[in-house]
Every structure is written in C-alpha cells, then in structure tokens.
Amino acid sequence: MLMNGKIKLQLPSPIHEVIDDLFIEKKVTVLFKRDDLIHQDISGNKWRKLKYNLEASKGKNILTFGGAFSNHIAASAVACNYSNIKSIGIIRGERPKQMNSTLLFAERSGMQLEFISRQEYKAKNTPEFLEKINKKYNEPFIIPEGGANQEGLMGCAEVIHELPDDFDYIITAVGTGATIAGLSLGLKDNQKVYGISVLKGAEYLNNEIEDLLDLDRDRSKNYELIHDYHFGGYAKIKLGLIQFMNDFYAKHGIKTDPIYSGKSLYALYDMIQKDVFPPNSKIIYYHCGGLQGIEGMEKRYGIDLF
Fold first, then answer.
1. Mean pLDDT in the chain?
2. Does any domain span residue 16?
3. Does 166 share its domain with 275?
4. What is the pLDDT of residue 305?
5. How many structural domains does the chain have?
6. If we measure between CA atoms, which residue out of 172, 173, 181, 62 comes closest to residue 110?
7. How far is the C-alpha of 217 from the C-alpha of 178, rounded, in Å?
C-alpha cells in the first residue's frame, strides 16, 4: 500500500490470470490488470490521470469538466479533498431536479459544481470560455475532461511498467483517448493496444489521440480503436451487456461497470470468440475502474447489477 499524501493506494495494482473455458478453447492467456483496486473512490485510470495533474497544480484550485455520471468528476473531487485543494466541476447539462449518486458524491467530497448548457459545454475549450472561467475562479489549474492532457498520459504510461514483458495485446475502454495514448507510449514493437470506444460516432478520437501523442498522421501506430461495442453510446446500455456482466461476476467474482469496463470486457470475449488474437497470445485486460457509476446507472435504467 502506497501513501500519497493522505491517500492510501494499492500500487502497483494486482495482476492475475483469469481462467475461462473460452480462453482455453482459443488457446489464449488473459491477465487482468486490476486498477479498479487502486483505491475505493479514486480507482483505475482516474488515479493514473490525476496523479501528475495534482502535482502540476502546485496547490492551486483545480477546475475540471464532465458529464452527470462522470467517474473523472467523482475521482477528482475525492483526490482534491484528500490533497486539501479546492475543486470546481463544470458539468454538462442543466442542474437536475434530483441529483444522481455521482454528483451527490462529488459535492459531499467538497467539489463545487457548476452546470452549463450542452451548447456552452461544447465551447469549453475556446479562448472566450477559458477567459471567462479564469476570471470567475481566480486562474484555477484546469484539467481537461477525463484528464486528457500530457500529465494524464504520463500517469497512464506507468501501467506498462507494472506488466510482464512478454504480453502481446492490451485491451482498454476509451472515453477521451488519454488512457490508450498513455499505454501506447510504453509498448514494444511487437505489442499492440486495442481501445474499445464507449462513445457512438467517436471516429474523431483517432485525431485526438494523435494530437495527444504528437504523432505524424502517416506514422504506423501500435494502437487501434474499435467502435463496435458502444451499445448505443456513452452511458447507454442493452440487456445483453447487463446479462454478460452479471454472468461474468457470478463466474469470476469481478465487478465491471456498464459505462466503461463492462463494454471493454464484452469486446474482449467477442474478439477472442472471433479469433482476432492468434493462438498462444498473452492478452492484458486493463480494468480501468469506474465502479462508482453502477448505482446511478441502476437507478436510471431500473436494473440490478451483481
């Protein structure tokens, strides 16, 4: 257990093999990198992306962005609270009449929430908007949505150093692209990362990842985005996904969330079934956390998980 200020972190996070009939049949080895166990409230890639941002803020107020079910908003609120840093969350959409569990958790963790229209949210990276919030909040340290900046990449890149050297593929969920970009930085020439987009119509992410990595557009890449497993879009689900998550938990005792990790795990099984990975491949499934969002999704859709 690593101490970071007042935060107790389980780092490096555990990694273990999951044995499954499908994996045996297809002759692949699957190791789970359990970043969901780093911390109860700042788990997975959220801690990875916040780590160096907290250092870079040098104690200034931190302002960041997210939607109503944002894992990043919840994790930022807790991390700032532990670090005695004031946090402000700019939330996409009007303030709901009844706050969901994610937003309530963020407020109770000390984050000041400001709700803005979806139209205004789209302009959040414009000079005019940034000037406005800099004046309003006294020049805060701004973390982009999802922690998608160079500090976030640095944190995610450290995951690779905690993995065995001889893996062939790594699978991760993709929202903003920072995680897959960070993971790609440490790969060997014979290794590849597949990113499972949880957003519908997110082909634009290819350019955003290239921008994060400062890549030449024509350069060959060690990552690939897959857009076939979003189940309707961000925070959208289908009963088949929920059944899969419940079945996996009953068999292996590992929880996933319906926004990120459940979709990437479903994709992993489907890709193995379709022989995307050659026999004798060693695959890392990167469990990026996000379990705090389960309660809100259960209430929103009237479903039961685990």
1. 92
2. yes
3. yes
4. 84
5. 2
6. 62
7. 17
> Residue 7 and residue 101: Cα distance in Å, rounded?
22
Share of the chain above pLDDT 70, in %: 96
| Predicted TM-score of the model (pTM) | 0.92
Residue that terminates a domain, selected from 130, 147, 164: 147
Shared-domain flag, residues 35 and 52: no
Distant-in-sequence, close-in-space partners of 302: CB < 8 Å, separation ≥ 6: none
Say whether both 264 and 173 belong to one domain.
yes
- Of 147, 182, 212, the residue at which a domain comes to its end is 147
Contacts of 98 (CB under 8 A, 6+ apart): none
Assess whether 177 and 143 both reside in one domain: no
Instruction: Single out the residue of 249, 78, 66, 67 nearest to residue 142, CA to CA.
Output: 66
Burial of 169 (0-12, 13-18, 19+ CB in 10 A): buried
> Are 190 and 126 within one domain?
no
Check whether residue 138 and residue 181 sit in a common domain: no
Instruction: Evaluate whether residue 306 is within a structural domain.
Output: no
Q: Are residues 256 and 171 in the same domain?
A: yes
> Could you read off the pLDDT of 63-113 as tens digits, one per residue?
999 999 899 999 999 999 999 999 999 999 999 999 998 999 999 999 999
What CATH number is given to the structural domain containing 32?
3.40.50.1100
**The residue to which tokens 């970043």 are assigned:** 35
Between residues 119 and 292, the one the model is more confident about:
119
Quote the domain boundaries for residue 70.
44-147
